[in-house]
Records
---
Amino acid sequence: MNFPFKRILITGGAGFIGSALIRELSKKSDILIFNIDYLGYSSDLTSIGNIEKNKYKHFHINLKDENATNIAMKQADPDVVIHFAAESHVDRSIESPRNFVDSNIYGTFNLLEASLNHWQKLSNNRKENFRFHHISTDEVFGSLGMTGTFTEKSPYSPRSPYSATKAASDHLVSSWYHTYGLPTLITNCSNNYGPYQFPEKLIPTVILKALEQKHIPIYGNGENVRDWLYVNDHVEGILLTACKGKVGESYCIGGNNEITNKQLVLKICSILDKVRPKKKSYSNLIKYIADRPGHDKRYAIDASKIEKELGWKPKWEIDKGIKETVIWYLNNLDWCYKIMDKSGYKGERIGQIKRK
């Protein structure tokens, strides 16, 4: 794939998916990578790996800071902006929705304004080729029944403070295209998994709880369905969309791997039974707990648009991807406990309604 961008500005590049993109981009020659990341609780610069100093610069700023965002934009002088930065954990949004409004809405607004100002000053050739690529989620579409899939034409119906603020940011991005002409792209992805995901998320939580011989929590009856997308597949879809996507369009990126939470947990336990056997199966540690408030029943993505128009399709089947992910966490437990210690997160349940 021909990569037309020489100066790439990424927001949230020390996060799970953003760092995976930077690791992939670092393989390319003759590009400069700029990373805006305020290094929140789940961010970790070590996940980026070793990059030549002359190819990478980190801006330790918060997108809520309008002035700092404008300065970073001017210094980066990007050909493309790829916007990951967001608060992303549903459970945390239930407890602290204001953080999600500040980051996902106001942060996106400031970045759009800085990008628009930058784009309007570019030479005609650079202006024509510039792109603002916003990374979003399938959760903005709400919950599916037992049939059907999300597409680019699905109505928005967010059910949590997280998905509501992501939906708002999607609408902001779209409006900056229609109102001001900023050349935008939006991708809505399904649940990502893979290396360097913060341990509060489902898959690393299951792995760590199992290894510690603690109860493995499953919300409700475990029948909630998610479509799992391996992070490397997602990165490939993002790059392809940035390079070849039609300006003003959105693309759904899914893993084509629907599975219930219960089935996923049992898969992880089965892998651990083989690679780290105990006297009893890890599945004996499973404990069903009170469901998450507003827990969406099912997500599933129809990714036919990006396949037909751009030629992308997922390569990682769920059994292979989960096994690779489990092995990675087993080999990187030090990283897990280090980032948990830094963040103050100790594996406790988050997201129980306590607000008055």
---
Amino acid sequence: MRALITGGAGFIGSALVLRLVKAGHEVLNYDALTYAAAPASLSAVADAANYRFQHADICDEAALKQAFDSFRPDVVLHLAAESHVDRSITGAGAFIDTNIAGTFTLLEAARAYRDRIGERALRFVHVSTDEVFGSLGAEGRFDETTAYDPSSPYSASKAASDHLVRAWARTYGLDAMISNCSNNYGPRQFPEKLIPLMILNALEGRALPVYGDGSNVRDWLYVDDHAAALQLIAERGEPGRTYCIGGEAERTNLQVVEAICDRVDAARGPRSDCRSRIEFVTDRPGHDQRYAINAERIDAELGWRPTLGFEQGLARTVDWYLANEAWWRPIREGRYRGERLGLSS
């Protein structure tokens, strides 16, 4: 493949870039390098002959045209997005600009490029979230037929971008597919998200704030398994299709934090007593109660299933943060110090 990846310096994007470059595919990483980007995550491939980087915004029409015409991709994997629910509560404008207007600009650039080259197809894989479906009760799982019911400015902006991609596929014949994934975790995740935030707080002896009573349920997907699914969709997905990608690992937030505590205590010794620092704090506004994914379609059609169980994946993740302070310490001391985000007025 010749893959143009937007947001390739982000958490999921960098996992995908590493996977494709190491497999020998040609990759252009197109990234604006906003606060959550981590170029250090790509140090292993930075000098690879089949890897290129372009520092630009997906809202920049001229930069996108230049990227398409110079790199000549045969697939676009669109991961660039504002993605943190808490930040969307107090700063929704950036989510509207990037997730909606940026996706529109990228779709138009892709369509214009396809029309210019004519002789070969261009695939477009739009990477979205299960949060567009809203909240589940105690039973059931999201699948590709679930109605959209977003609760936050973040999920509403991603729902809008999904609708744009679907419309461009139907109206303009763009060879486009959408993926809706469950919560990702793993190494190199920006520490505003639950799992890395709790790991770093635990390592530093700080309080571990858990929203509400900790009963909110998420389906956890290891990031490398997600990257494998995205590669399969890019290679063999059916045009116009949506694929739900889940980790088959439902856990309450409290269960996740307690598991992190146990792993940190095992590494640091019983004096760490991490669980004693769990604190229940005011819940997030509009907090969805439960997410769960039915991934039967991508299994049946593309042969994908998660390979890593939650306990094994979490152990790898905690151990990575223990061993890679040089990656997270500059972030922790600079761009994000672990403060509470998303408190509405």
